């Protein structure tokens, strides 16, 4: 994520206040002030301004995020020109596989989940629309990394802070680059329990005729249902069919 060289302190404090409300689901002025590290008076001024503009609401003594953010999210989503056709195919992937299917895009070096669809056997995870994740340990993230422009890929990898989330998480730049090369050759990326132990998945990038990466789709599920034969056979074929339909539609946009 890009860091501002000269952040505006008042704006940063407002964002910190919103982060607290998001993380807690609702908090009192005292709680927000303690988390942000400023006075209750300062926090109250920020909250009052946000409330007046519909970005927070007050229920009793607690402040919560307002539905005005849904309007902002709607307009942010609209700039993803392939959203509708992609979500339709993600629904199909979830139905066909019975698992959890995702549509993710890259922004500022992070994978942002824009859509999820649950099949009849889908596992419950912490993934939600808007969920952010690092690129190096997810199938969608590695699919996008492998196929984006080399200069951008090198820049993102150079700034990665690798974390050992599970015993299988890649934490070495050279190992990651080797896997990305294999992904470019096969067209499919895998997550072999690298994010959550016991949860595996496969994903592929969505690209136009010039090779521009628009995002990626994936199917994830528990290893007990997604054995090697299914994970590297049936699931990739489903994904390839979905991506093919999406990419055909990109040409008509």
The number of helical segments is 9
Q: How many strand units?
A: 8
Q: What's the CATH topology label of the largest domain?
A: Beta-Lactamase
Q: What does the radius of gyration come to?
A: 20 Å
Shape: globular
CATH superfamily of the largest domain: GAF domain
Protein architecture, described:
With 253 residues, this protein is of the alpha+beta class. The chain has two domains: 63 residues, Winged helix-like DNA-binding domain superfamily/Winged helix DNA-binding domain (Arc Repressor Mutant, subunit A, Orthogonal Bundle), CATH 1.10.10.10; 171 residues, GAF domain (Beta-Lactamase), CATH 3.30.450. It is built from nine helices and eight strands. The protein has a six-stranded antiparallel beta sheet, with helices on both faces. The longest helix has 23 residues.
Main features:
253 residues, alpha+beta, Arc Repressor Mutant, subunit A, two-stranded antiparallel ribbon, 9 helices, 47% helix
Brief synopsis:
By secondary structure, the protein is an alpha+beta fold.
Provide the fold topology.
Layout: H1 9-24, H2 29-36, H3 40-52, E1 56-59, E2 62-65, H4 68-78, H5 83-97, E3 100-107, E4 110-118, E5 132-134, H6 139-147, H7 150-158, H8 173-186, E6 189-192, E7 199-207, E8 213-222, H9 228-250
Antiparallel strand pairs: 1-2, 3-4, 3-8, 4-5, 6-7, 7-8
């Amino acid at each position: 994520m890009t860091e501002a060289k000269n952040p505006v302190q008042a704006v940063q404090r407002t964002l910190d206040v919103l982060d607290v409300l998001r993380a807690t689901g609702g908090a009192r002025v005292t709680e927000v002030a303690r988390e942000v590290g400023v006075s209750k008076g300062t926090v109250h001024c920020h909250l009052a301004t946000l409330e007046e503009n519909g970005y927070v609401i007050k229920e009793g003594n607690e402040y919560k995020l307002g539905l005005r953010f849904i309007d902002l999210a709607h307009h942010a989503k609209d700039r993803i020109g392939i959203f509708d056709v992609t979500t339709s195919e993600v629904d199909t992937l979830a139905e066909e596989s019975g698992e959890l299917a995702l549509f993710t895009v890259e922004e500022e070096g992070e994978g942002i989940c824009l859509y999820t669809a649950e099949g009849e056997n889908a596992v419950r995870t912490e993934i939600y629309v808007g969920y952010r994740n690092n690129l190096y340990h997810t199938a969608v993230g590695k699919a996008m990394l492998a196929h984006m422009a080399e200069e951008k890929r090198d820049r993102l990898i150079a700034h990665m802070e690798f974390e050992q989330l599970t015993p299988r998480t890649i934490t070495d730049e050279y190992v990651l680059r080797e896997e990305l090369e294999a992904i470019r050759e096969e067209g499919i990326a895998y997550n072999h329990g690298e994010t959550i132990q016991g949860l595996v998945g496969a994903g592929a990038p969505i690209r136009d005729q010039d090779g521009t990466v628009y995002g990626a789709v994936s199917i994830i599920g528990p290893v007990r249902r997604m054995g090697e034969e299914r994970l590297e056979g049936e699931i990739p074929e489903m994904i390839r069919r979905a991506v093919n339909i999406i990419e055909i539609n990109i040409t008509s946009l």
